[in-house]
Design brief:
Shape: rod-shaped
Mean pLDDT: 79
Number of strands: 0
Organism: Acaulospora morrowiae
Structural class: mainly alpha
Protein name: 5398_t:CDS:1
Order of helices and strands: H
């Protein structure tokens, strides 16, 4: 049964034959964009975490290097 959302000039058989397919396509596309957006968010978070790890390693490496340098000069 149609929800009476269409004008009388639109035949009911056309609505019944086209509407479910269009709705399915719409839902499929919406699901696709949702999954794509979620994957992009996950990849962005992983990328940011990897960059933070690299930055932290550089800081630790510099701190260790500076500490060794001070120890060498302090002993002289």
């Amino acid at each position: 049964e149609a929800l009476e959302c269409w004008p009388d000039s639109v035949q009911k058989r056309i609505i019944e034959s086209k509407f479910p397919n269009s709705l399915l396509i719409s839902h499929t596309y919406n699901a696709y964009t949702l999954v794509r957006d979620e994957l992009e968010k996950i990849q962005s978070v992983k990328r940011r975490q990897a960059e933070e790890k690299v930055t932290q390693r550089r800081v630790v490496t510099r701190a260790k290097t500076k500490g060794k340098g001070k120890a060498i000069f302090d002993s002289m």
